[in-house]
Design a protein that fits this description.
Keywords: Disulfide bond, Signal
Organism: Branchiostoma belcheri
Pfam families: VWD
Strand content: 35-45%
GO molecular function: signaling receptor binding
CATH class: Alpha Beta
Structural class: mainly beta
CATH architecture: 3-Layer(aba) Sandwich
Distance between the termini: 60 Å
Number of domains: 1
Order of helices and strands: EEEEEEEEEEEEEH
Radius of gyration: 17 Å
Number of helices: 1
Protein name: von Willebrand factor D and EGF domain-containing protein-like
Largest sheet: 7 strands, antiparallel
CATH topology: Protein Transport Mog1p, Chain A
Length: 202
């Protein structure tokens, strides 16, 4: 008998934080929410240096929050897009890259497109990761795309990226949130940057 080799196709992973904000993880596509101000780890990888951190500030009537800043690190490159400073609705976004720019790794680049209602930034990294940020007057939407090589190597608010949506609410200590699926506050709190290492303060 011949040898049979079974391969597993590892697809690209997507995670989104939009609106006030509504999250869809790498595996879990039903939305979950966070309404407390703070800086949080959206995703961090165990097998390589890649991490996305987001900052939430008050939105609307103050009963909800929305994204006002994002910091992304791959290896030694750190890119920050920030509108968290100034008064809500009266602040300009700015982008920060490593200085001097020639120190940015080959394959790392950021594009910017001005639209009618938002400015769209797209960050490309050598690993194949792509982070898209749609910046509006008062908030931003964030979309993270990671390559199949990160399969089973992701932790954070975006979940584990292992094809199993039932274990996405894993905390840094390896325990799991077992309460509300729509508002998993203890899970979010465990990924607040005071609880884990941070990239940068937004």
């Amino acid at each position: 008998m011949g040898t049979h080799i079974r391969t597993i196709d590892k697809s690209t992973g997507f995670c989104v934080a939009s609106g006030d904000p509504h999250y869809q993880g790498f595996d879990r596509k039903s939305t979950y929410h966070r309404y407390d101000v703070g800086t949080y780890i959206m995703t961090t990888m165990t097998e390589r240096e890649f991490e996305v951190q987001t900052r939430l500030w008050p939105c609307g009537n103050g009963q909800v929050t929305c994204n006002c800043g994002v910091a992304v690190r791959e290896d030694n490159d750190i890119i920050i897009i920030d509108l968290c400073h100034g008064n809500h609705g009266h602040t300009l976004d700015y982008i920060s890259l490593k200085d001097p720019p020639e120190d940015i790794a080959d394959g790392t680049q950021v594009t910017m497109t001005d639209g009618s209602s938002a400015t769209d930034y797209v960050m490309y990294f050598p690993s194949g990761s792509i982070v898209t940020v749609n910046v509006y007057t008062r908030h931003m939407n964030i979309r993270i795309e990671v390559p199949g090589d990160d399969y089973r190597h992701s932790y954070g608010i975006c979940g584990n990226f292992d094809g199993d949506e039932t274990n996405d609410f894993e905390k840094p200590d390896g325990t799991f949130h077992t309460g509300s699926d729509n508002y998993p506050d203890p899970f979010f709190e465990s990924w607040r940057y005071e609880s884990v290492s941070q990239i940068a303060t937004l």
